[in-house]
Amino acid sequence: MGPSTLPRLSNPPRLNRLPRTLIRVPFTLGYTLVLLGTGLYARLGDPGTVHDLLADSSTDVSHLSQRPLLTLLVSALWAVGGITSPYLVVFPLVLGALERRVGGVRTAGVFLLGHVLATLLTELPVAASVAVGHLPDSSLRRLDYGVSYGLIACAAALAGLLVPRLRWALLGGIGVALAAGSLVDFDPLTEWGHGLALLIGVVCWPYVRRNARWRPSSKVGDAAEGGFAHSERASGNT
Fold first, then answer.
1. 55 CA to centre of own chain
2. What pLDDT, on the 0 to 100 scale, is given for residue 108?
3. What is the SS3 string spanning the chain?
């Protein structure tokens, strides 16, 4: 029996698809690596330094009034909970699924829209309340950082690309997860921001549908196509 007659061993199909899948989601991959890096530093770095970095990254009124753009940027470089954060599991799944269907630039746009708008819409009322004396000056400073607003907006936008049955299941799952989180660690501004982020993602439905590789349909049979139709305690933005 010659060498040419021996059976050839091929790589498992799933392993062959993995590099191609990662290449198709560069924004998600790069962002996830950043979160992993900051998560590792939060776990292994000097506690005092880590605390100072997180405090400086907080999107509270004080920081937003001094350096708004930088604050909004650096606050999204951390995941609350560090390397053990459940966001590090959900983040690449949600953003990766959205990026495969609308591209990295549009995914980044949805994420930033949710992160920035939900942050401003929760912090500006605080600034106004302090200005008229309804809240103390201490309300201008709070520990508020993370990716949850942008993540929720992307998850809600992704729901708009699903067939109706899966769409409402995803939105319901987000609602249940947010309700469960509020029972563990309730913060009014956080819950308000999460609700706003969810609404922002829903508002993005026409945008993502117009630019998606798959378009939503009400046909039940489309669900066979993977659910997509063809054609320190940190409060706040976790």
1. 21
2. 97
3. CCHHHCCCCCCCHHHHHHHHHHHCCHHHHHHHHHHHHHHHHHHHCCHHHHHHHHHHCCCCHHHHHHCHHHHHHHHCCCCCCHHHCCHHHHHHHHHHHHHHHHCHHHHHHHHHHHHHHHHHHHHHHHHHHHHCCCCCHHHHCCCCCCCHHHHHHHHHHHHCCECHHHHHHHHHHHHHHHHHHHHHCCCHHHHHHHHHHHHHHHHCHHHHHHHCCCCCCCCHHHHHCCCECCCCCCCCCC
Burial degree of 14 (CB within 10 A; 0-12, 13-18, 19+): exposed
What is the C-alpha to C-alpha distance for residues 71 and 63, in angstroms, rounded to an integer? 7
Give the pair of three-digit tokens for residue 195: 């609700």
* Per-10-residue mean pLDDT, the chain, length 238: 50 58 87 96 94 94 94 95 91 96 96 97 92 87 92 97 94 92 79 94 96 60 43 49
pTM of the entire structure? 0.82
pLDDT recorded at residue 105: 96
Q: Which two tokens stand for residue 37?
A: 């890096």
Cα–Cα distance between 167 and 11 in angstroms, integer? Answer: 35
Q: Kindly report the backbone phi and psi dihedral angles of residue 139, in degrees, each rounded to the nearest multiple of 5, phi listed first.
A: -70, -15
| β-bridge mates for residue 228, sequence order | 162
CA distance 196 to 114: 8
